[in-house]
Structures are given as C-alpha cells and as structure tokens.
Specification:
This protein is an alpha+beta fold. 59% of the residues lie in helices and 6% in strands. The protein contains ten helices and four strands. The protein has helices at 4-26, 36-56, 64-73, 78-91, 100-103, 137-149, 153-173, 175-181, 200-207, 210-217; strands at residues 96-98, 109-113, 125-127, 130-132. A four-stranded mixed beta sheet has the order 1-2-4-3. A hairpin with a 2-residue loop joins strand 3 (125-127) and strand 4 (130-132). The radius of gyration is 20 Å and the shape is globular. The two termini are 36 Å apart. The relative contact order is 0.09.
Length: 220
Amino acid sequence: MGSPFVRTLLTAVVAVALATGTCLAASVLWPALREPWVLIVVGGIALLIAIMAGILGSYELTTARGWLLLVLDHTWSLPNTLFGAVVGNIIYPFFGNPSTSLSAGKEWVSYKARGASGFGVTVLQTLGTVNIGGAGNHERVHLLQARILGPIFLPLVGISYVILTLFQCVWSLTIGLILRLAKVRDTAWFRAPATSAVPGFWGWIYFATPMELWAYGTEP
C-alpha cells in the first residue's frame, strides 16, 4: 500500500473484524467468548497491535503472503497474537523501541534493542507476533511455531516448562545431589550447552523445551 494511513486503516479494520469474528466462531465451543466485554477486549488488543503493524508496515498488503499471514495471525494463531501484543508491549519498551527497519515486510512488530538496558541485559525474544532484537533465524522459528500450532502453542510451552522444572528439581535434590556430593558431577542440576541463551539452573529447563530444541536445531 502506498499510503501509510490507508495501510494502517486497512490492517486495523481487517484485524479487528477477524479477531472478533474468531471469538464468535469459537464461542460455539466456549460460550463465554461471545460476551460483549470479551469481544471489546479482544477487539481492542487486536486494534492496538494492528495499528502498530500498519504504521511499521509489518504486513505487505500488496502480496498474497502478507494477506495470508495477517489472516492467520488473527484467526488460527489469535491467542498467540493477543499474548504477544499484551505482554510484549508491556515489557519490550523497557529494552527497545518499535523499529520500521526490523518490522517492515517481516509480518511482525519488532523492537530495536537499545543494547544493555537499565536492567543490564540484552534481549532477543519473540512473543506471538511481537519481537525484540530483530530477525535472527531462531526468533523467526518461534514465529513459525506459533503460526503452525495456533491455539495449542502457548499451552504446550507452559506444560513443557512445568514438566521440565519438576524434573530438574527432583533430579537436583536426589540423584544429582548425591553425585555432586560424591564429586562425580560439578553441579547437582543438568546444565544447558554453552550455546544456550539462558545459563545456570534454569538454562537446561529453557533449552530442553521442545520449542527451543526445535529453534536451536535450525541454527548452524
């Protein structure tokens, strides 16, 4: 679209219509989704992220791909889009600023990291269709995962973290502790590879989740 205003308006109208329509369709299985307040909240969040996507030129609406992903993100992958829109836009402004260069034609809203933030860390992460740090292959894989798995993506991520956290804790307090005291191991817990973005006790939990194994498996 030549005009940013037209592009943003069209993105917003389509996103809100698709999001609220998806809620109404899903209310056949979950009647609460047809409650007016639910539709207003979902429509409002969809409007927020759509305006950002429109201004940044995230979806290339002159191509079939752009339209397909706009529709997919606000129907099948709607829970992931809403989650990223809320959580990402609450957290990421502390670490970066919305970036046209990292978002335009990329089918996501990307923040350009300001380097080490006030919290002393550099962030590279993707939540739904909201990213910070840019289009590394790893982050694009998470975007793809959400689009493929749709409404089961977030539950799978949550369940895998719960299971692996329990396993790490039980191991560390039993066999791992015994092996550590016997000096067979230098830690009681499982450690992630050096390539993991998260170190320490939580590193293995993070790295061993199916979504991260998938993402890291695509890296050279």
